[in-house]
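Consider this record:
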Amino acid sequence: MSTLRQDGPGGNRAAGVGVLDRSVALLDLLGDGPRTLRWLAAASGLPRPTAYRLLVALEAHRLVARDGSGAFRLGPRLTELAVRAGPALDLAALAGPVLAELHEATGESVQLYVRSGDRRLCVAARDAGTGLRDSVPVGALLPLDAGSGGKVLLAWSADAAGLPPDRAAELAAVRRRGWAASVAEREPGVASVSAPVLAGGGLADGELLGAVCVSGPASRLGQAPGRRLAPQLIEAASRLAGLARPAAGPTT
């Protein structure tokens, strides 16, 4: 017997279809990053053989993948489906050349994030190949409250107004200067800088489409990575916004 609740880990209501409900619960649990089979079975309340069978089936459909250690993580097909579902995520299809040039210019990992509920979704990325924890796979869901990408997505959202005063002030400063930086916020030893992709206006009135991010070891980027990388991020984000504007079309 499964101990899955009527409301799953992501707040999804059960559909009444056992295999579907269990599969969605496993996908929700993977939203916070790679997990082992033992952890997933314990967290979901499923017997390990059942959890493994479902994960392998999801893997066959590319909804789940495995990292270098064999742990399960969200697969690339989820991002592909999301891109088809939302016009804002069409940005990922346009981002390849811009991210490639930014990667070549900085030598670091680069990502494109969009907001997904109370988290941020990596929809495109170029890995620096360093093997460090700055690498973020496409399809990864990361928190909004840690890291420069999350700061950017929050700074240009309506949520920023209801945050505690110190946090709201920090995000207001991000909006004024047009970029955010972080050092060891999401992962120890990792620094990043991000800039907003804004369509149809400037920093004050542009429509937020996503956040372009450069991440790398803090030992290489330093304790103030924005000083060196912010101009390149802003330029890359501006170019991507220019590419996306015709595709985005009128807003309602």
